[in-house]
Amino acid sequence: MEISEGSDIILMNTDDKLALDLFHIDKEPHIKVDHEKCRACPHKLCTYVCPAQNYTLNGDNDIAFSWEGCLECGTCRIVCDRGALTWEYPRGGYGICYKF
Ligand code: SF4
Ligand code: SF4
Predict the structure, then answer these.
(1) Which of 21, 56, 70 to mutate to test the pocket of ligand 2 (most atoms within 8 A of CB)?
(2) Of 12, 42, 65, 100, which has the maximum CB count within 10 A?
(3) Using an 8 Å Cβ cutoff, are 22 and 98 in contact?
(4) Ligand nearest to the CA of 21
């Protein structure tokens, strides 16, 4: 974060802004993953595109997924062409609360 002296201008990068967001984490994931389909997936695009890096490769040609830091952008829903994701917004009162 960069603060300009003598002015009210505060320059924030994306990470600075995201760090100010609040997460109300539900016990139940709002995105469910079919791991059998993921193991057969040749590209694993979700591991490249999720801005929160919620998808990671594990050692079994499968992916590990954590929903807690989900930004609800929907990118994984769009790139997954294998039908492996059941994607819903979090229940009311849960999920991300954006400041910016
Ligand atoms: S793109 Fe879809 S099928 Fe492929 S690994 Fe990711 S979630 Fe699984
Ligand atoms: S909705 Fe966005 S932030 Fe959430 S898991 Fe999918 S790609 Fe990642």
Answers:
(1) 70
(2) 65
(3) no
(4) 2
Residue 62 CA to residue 39 CA, distance in Å, equals 5
Considering the entire predicted model, what is its pTM?
Answer: 0.86
What is the rounded CA–CA span in Å between residue 44 and residue 35? 12
Residues 21-72 have pLDDT tens digits of 999 999 999 999 999 999 999 999 999 999 999 999 998 899 999 999 999 9
Of 41, 28, 37, residue with least CA distance to 84: 37
Nearest CA to ligand 2 atom 2: 73
Ligand 1: which residues within 6 Å by Cβ? 33, 37-38, 41, 44-46, 63, 79-80, 82, 84-85
Domains of the chain are 29-100 (3.30.70.20)
